Amino acid sequence: MLRDRRILLAVTGGVAAYKAVYLARRLLERGAEIEVIMTEAARRFVGEQTFAAISGRPVSTDLFGSSRVSPHTELAGWAEVIVVAPATAATMARLAAGLSEDLVTATLLASEAPVLLAPAMHTEMWQHPATQRNVERLKADGHQFIGPAEGSLAGGDEGPGRMIEPDEIVAAVEAILTGPLKGWRVLVSAGGTREPIDPVRYIGNRSSGKMGYAIASVAAARGADVLLVTSSTLPPPAGVELFRVETAEEMAAQVWNLAPGVDVAVLTAAVADFRPAKEIDSKLRRRDGVPELVLESTPDILAGVAALDDRPFLVGFAAETGSLDGARRKAMEKGVDLLVANDVSEPGSGFGTETNRVTIIRPDGASDEWPLLDKRQVADRLWDLVAQIRQS
Ligand SMILES: Cc1cc2nc3c(=O)[nH]c(=O)nc-3n(C[C@H](O)[C@H](O)[C@H](O)COP(=O)(O)O)c2cc1C
Questions:
Q1: Residue 59: what are its φ and ψ, rounded to 5°?
Q2: Helices (H), 207-345
Q3: Distance between CA atoms of 235 and 355, rounded to whole angstroms?
Q4: Percent of the chain having pLDDT more than 90?
Q5: Which residue among 88, 134, 164 is best mutated to probe the pocket of ligand 1, counting the most ligand atoms within 8 A of its Cβ?
Q6: pLDDT digits (tens, 9 = 90+) for 20-69
Q7: Same fold, 6-177 and 185-391
Q8: Residue 261 burial (CB < 10 Å; 0-12/13-18/19+)?
Q9: Nearest to 7 by CA among 98, 93, 111
């Protein structure tokens, strides 16, 4: 049920806008409170009066000239979830670019509520590289998508692009609002650390932070409170609390500080195992000859969290090259609940790629190989698994 849940329905200008009328009706029948906002183009397809009559509230269509002083921020703050249905290619492009000239995109930009987009358009528009780029961007920003489905489209065409049926959208909204990670406090570490040699050079690694960001983003979209400790410079996913660090030492301090208060810690960061024992104060020069670097061990962050008295459910990551024997040993010896191992030397897997092929290893050594997946799909499956284990 959606009793008294506050849902903002944003209708944009596609033929499927007529289905949004039924969607509004179904949300109300489930007990939700709804407000409807529309783009100028949407009003060409369905009159705002129809939505007003169904919802019993006036429909907002303009940033300026409304009875509200600041309609976008008021609606953004009011909504527990925003559903964009149908979501046009144009609205998605504006949102992906951060443009906010109209009420719908300004409200979306002003809100921290989860956003569910239900795209609808002709197959060619959906498959256009620009649309696909925007969809990827929006997913990386933490927005959730439902559909489009494949089927008959306006004008008698067939193919992917049809808006998903309203009842499925209602079910997705229910899943977001009563999602399995609601009330969970989650800590994620991401990125590769940098260990200074001198003021301009460092020892680093090739980790981009993409896997950790996908894990943080999916957890936030499923309702968790997410703390992201990161050394990556990627733009942060929506709805997470960010802690920037650079070195293994800083990451250890931040993770150890936050870990006692969380339910789940997923440590994806590629932390340096060794660092220069001494940072040199001024830039090393060629004329002074080849320097000799003496290395020392960095703190073992995973072991530190595993050793906490009241430790969180702990997921470790292990980047290996070749055999996963080292990861298997780590899973059995480090006190983790799950270890996610990947061979970073395999094409399409590991550092900087959009995809990953991982093996999930349990503390008893049992393992499960997942196929090559988009990093977001890996994150989705990982949270499904963690939720299943924690609830069993
Ligand atoms: C008859 C007709 C049907 C359209 N259907 C769609 C559609 O299903 N999906 C879409 O993305 N754009 C569709 N468009 C184009 C959008 O209406 C147009 O890009 C508009 O600028 C979208 O504005 P909005 O995103 O602010 O609502 C259609 C246009 C017309 C004239």
A1: -95, 135
A2: 210-221, 248-258, 301-306, 325-333
A3: 19
A4: 70
A5: 88
A6: 999 999 999 999 999 999 999 999 999 999 999 999 999 999 999 888 89
A7: yes
A8: exposed
A9: 111
Q: Which residues are catalytic?
A: 205
Task: Give residue ranges with CB within 6 A of ligand 1.
Answer: 12-16, 39, 41-42, 88-91, 102, 120-121, 125
Decide: 264 and 313 in contact? Cβ < 8 Å. Answer: yes
Give the pLDDT score at 302.
Answer: 96
CA distances for 302 relative to 11, 307, 312, 351, angstroms: 46, 9, 11, 20
Q: In residues, how long is the chain?
A: 392
- The burial of 352, by beta-carbon neighbours within 10 Å (0-12 exposed, 13-18 middle, 19 or more buried), is given as exposed
Tokens 């949004």 locate to 20
CATH number assigned to the domain with residue range 6-177, chosen from the 4 options 1.10.10.10, 3.40.50.1950, 3.40.50.720, 3.20.20.70:
3.40.50.1950
Show the tokens assigned to 110.
């002003």
CA–centroid distance, 47 to ligand 1, in Å, is 15
Question: For the chain, what are the domain ranges?
Answer: 6-177, 185-391
Tokens of 249: 């030492």
Identify the CATH class of 185-391: alpha beta
| Contact predicate 176/146, CB 8 Å | no
Identify which of 316, 390, 388 has the alpha carbon closest to the alpha carbon of residue 359: 316
Identity of residue 20 = A
The pairing of beta strand 373-374 with beta strand 355-356: antiparallel
Ligand 1 atom showing the smallest separation from residue 16 Cα:
8
Q: How far is the CA of 21 from the centre of ligand 1 (A)?
A: 17
Each residue's pLDDT tens digit, 230-260: 999 888 877 789 999 999 999 999 999 999 9
Instruction: Give the residue from 347, 274, 275, 356 showing the smallest Cα distance to 317.
Output: 356
Confidence (pTM): 0.61
